[in-house]
Amino acid sequence: MTTHTLAGMGLFLTGAAFSQVLAFGIVAWREARRERQIDGTLGPPAPDPSDNAK
């Protein structure tokens, strides 16, 4: 393999990894935003009764 081929593969893999990180970040942001909207509409979730066992 030539240097250009290795450099191209490296750039491709770096771009693919960056795309994955970006995609997971967008999914996490959308999920958090959705939870905030639900909490804003319905209020915060009720406390878990198993926490007050003793």
UniProtKB/TrEMBL annotation:
Annotated TM spans: 6-29
Region (Disordered): 35-54
Superkingdom as given in the UniProt entry: Bacteria
Keyword annotations from UniProtKB, A to Z: Membrane, Transmembrane, Transmembrane helix
Name assigned to this protein: Heme exporter protein D
